[in-house]
Amino acid sequence: MLPQKVEEVIQSVTSLRPMPANISRILKEIENPEITIEILVGLISLDQALAALVLQMSNSASLGYARQCSTLYEAIMHLGLNRLKSILLTSSATGMMNRSLTGYRFGAGELWHHSLVTGVASEWLAQALRYPNPEEAYVSGLLHDIGKLLLDQFVVSNYKTIVEFVQVYKLQLWQVEEKLIGIDHARVGGMIAERWNFPVVLVDAIHYHHTPSLARTNQQLPAIVNLANAFAEDYSLANTELFSFDVHPETYNILKISDAEVQTLKTRMRDSGRFPAFSKGDKKK
Fold it and tell me: Which residues have a Cβ under 8 Å from the Cβ of 142 and sit 6 or more positions away?
């Protein structure tokens, strides 16, 4: 028998709406080699919220886009099909991650800020480490903490105890969640990704971003997210008591890098000019 809290968490995952049919259709069309920008514009424009999201992301300074796009055609051309696909995959979660989380003591937008930093850092690291699909890294980094959205309600009553375990016993947040609730946010995130029919490589990257050596098919991707999550501490706006920023020891082995090389990468990323919009004084990005 599963503990009651775990059963409730699993039920909350199964109660999530599946990926909307219009998103699934557009994702399928993107894979069609005969697809045109005009057709994509027509499909996306049928959903006002989705159209607004694509325009917003194409004009996001946080993603390094300086050019202003005023039409969907311009936005799609500017983004490219790979980034458009990523936006569609993550669209169901984007709005939810902007809300406040009472249990974790995150204000409105704070989880989104951390997630966006981690997504961009994951993409940057993937390119620096020659990972073949940086877009996978971006999506995995962006959604790595999505499990906190559903686990938040169970953290509320355990907050003081969780903070005590983190501070006094020097345990990682995910370890304390597992101990007190019976399931951690990474596993819940993986379950959400499965619910939305994500590829196994993305499910594993989210599920095992704190324990990358346990991934079933591709350990590199969760290791990159694990490292990016650690780098994100420098750009954090939120209450950092309930974020886990440690690099897992196996990450070094999986990525074949030393601690000195990690520090070099961290400096290069900071000096790359890729993160000016993530300053600690800018909470709205």
Answer: 86, 90, 115, 116, 118, 119, 122
pLDDT mean over 207-225? 96
The pTM of the whole model exceeds 0.85: yes
Burial class (CB in 10 A: 0-12, 13-18, 19+), 142: buried
Of 265, 272, 229, the C-alpha closest to 247 is 229
The answer to whether residue 84 scores a pLDDT higher than 90 is yes
CATH number at residue 179: 1.10.3210.10
Residue 87 and residue 84: Cα distance in Å, rounded?
5
**Domain enclosing residue 108, as ranges:** 4-16+93-278
- Pairwise CA distance, residues 182 & 10, whole Å: 11
* CB-based burial label for 113 (10 Å; 0-12, 13-18, 19+): buried
Residue 23 within any structural domain of the chain: no
pLDDT value for 284: 36
Amino acid found at 102: T
